[in-house]
Amino acid sequence: VQLQASGGGLVQAGGSLRLSCSASGRTLSRYVMGWFRQAPGAEREFVSAISKSGTSTYYASSVKGRFTISRDNAKNTMYLQMNSLKPEDTAVYYCAADPTRIYTYDYWGQGTQVTVSS
Length: 118
What we know:
By secondary structure, this protein is an all-beta fold. 0% of the residues lie in helices and 52% in strands. The protein is built from no helices and eleven strands. The strands form two sheets. Strands 2, 4, 5, 6, 9, 10 and 11 form a seven-stranded mixed sheet that branches. A four-stranded antiparallel sheet has the order 1-3-8-7, with no helix packed on it. The chain is globular and about 40 Å long.
């Protein structure tokens, strides 16, 4: 499966962005999907994940209550709605897919930059 993330940009603190991850090559419904991020000088960290059907979602404590993950399998697309953004959310965001796992992924898209200004 090939993944393409989009929707990043520059936003002020308190603002919102919606990231999208589109898939090609295989049906998205075959995969658990996730979002990760990597800030400059930091390791890549887990942000959120969603089960194949979309009925189960998982969040890092740092984003819970502010970010919402969703998917539209008919459109082969996953989303990350990010609200109440903080400067510490600044990072390159990556989408990922795996046949079974929640926190470890076999397939990765290229990143999209999110920059939150204070």
